[in-house]
């Protein structure tokens, strides 16, 4: 069951970061370009037939000006502005339906759930992790990370949201996106990367043969000439490099039997994280992680961080 390093070794695992010399310049230029267009956030009231929340069908201008969709869910009858959790979804997932996202509003938070561009519920069959991987400028996650930053900017424009108390959160792919935003937006109030994907790519792609990391290995099996090029591209998107720049309080989670986001890759990002941090370890769980127990831990963490 425990296929990765021992827990003692995981707590010490801090691999060298393969960070390109122009990492900061690349991301500064990317976001400056995106911000030449207004975020143009729109929040249309949505009849969800739910009595305890107000729901808005939201959209904003993301990477290249494309419209990115989301749900804004606000507890009904609670005076604002409120702290807001911006949630990023897992690989291949969608924003789903509003009633699937009632946890944070039940706890008194506003919640913005961002749809990940062009994944559309195709699950691990999506080819996103290799799309455009031959150069950082065209890589799929350049657009996704930019969308995620713009989601924070969009939700801050809503009158029910306290712009100083925006928290970023997500599991798996959503956890990896969370780390990227924490590294790119220095004033987010907290980060909750749950079993984060998109970390320590070199170890993740050589440790095991599970989707979606194995899509990279399968590509390189046929494109033997691109190994160095691919890892060079991935270094611009590795959660370790964003973690080293993130200063907001963060609660991570790792699961020791997780064969989708191996625990060593999670600890690689955690051990490089620059800000205050804590880690929940689920010793006998796979990629489902701590489930409801993790949610309780996140509530406690935010309370202790003064974000209620």
TrEMBL record:
Domain annotation Acetyl xylan esterase: ranges: 3-304
Q: Where is the signal peptide?
A: none
Q: Which residues bind substrate?
A: 91
- Cite the active-site annotation: 172 (nucleophile), 258 (charge relay system), 287 (charge relay system)
Which molecular function terms from Gene Ontology are attached? Answer: carboxylic ester hydrolase activity
Q: Which PANTHER family match?
A: CEPHALOSPORIN-C DEACETYLASE (PTHR40111:SF1)
Listed name of the protein: Cephalosporin-C deacetylase
């Amino acid at each position: 069951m425990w296929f990765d390093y021992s827990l003692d070794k995981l707590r010490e695992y801090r691999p060298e970061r393969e960070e390109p010399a122009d990492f900061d310049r690349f991301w500064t230029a990317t976001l400056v370009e995106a911000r030449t267009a207004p975020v143009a956030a729109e929040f249309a009231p949505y009849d969800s037939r739910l009595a305890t929340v107000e729901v808005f069908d939201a959209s904003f201008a993301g990477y290249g000006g494309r419209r990115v969709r989301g749900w804004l869910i606000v507890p009904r009858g609670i005076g604002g502005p409120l702290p807001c959790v911006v949630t990023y979804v897992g690989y291949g997932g969608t924003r789903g339906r509003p009633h699937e996202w009632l946890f944070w509003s039940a706890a008194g938070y506003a919640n913005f759930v961002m749809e990940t561009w062009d994944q559309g519920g195709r699950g691990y069959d999506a080819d996103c992790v290799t799309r455009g991987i031959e150069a950082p400028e065209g890589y799929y996650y350049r657009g996704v990370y930019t969308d995620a930053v713009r989601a924070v900017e969009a939700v801050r424009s809503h009158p029910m949201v306290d712009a100083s108390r925006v928290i970023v959160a997500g599991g798996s792919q959503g956890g990896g996106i969370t780390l990227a935003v924490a590294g790119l937006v220095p004033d987010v109030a907290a980060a909750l990367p749950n079993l984060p994907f998109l970390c320590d790519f070199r170890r993740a792609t050589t440790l095991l043969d599970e989707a979606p990391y194995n899509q990279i290995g399968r590509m390189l099996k046929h494109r033997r000439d691109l190994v160095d090029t691919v890892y060079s591209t991935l270094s611009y998107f590795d959660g370790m490099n964003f973690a080293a720049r993130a200063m907001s309080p963060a609660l991570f989670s790792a699961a020791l039997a997780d064969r989708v986001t191996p625990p060593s890759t999670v600890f690689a990002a955690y051990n490089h994280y620059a800000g205050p941090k804590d880690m929940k370890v689920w010793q006998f769980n796979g990629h489902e992680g701590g489930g409801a127990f993790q949610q309780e831990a996140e509530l406690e963490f935010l309370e202790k961080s003064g974000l209620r």
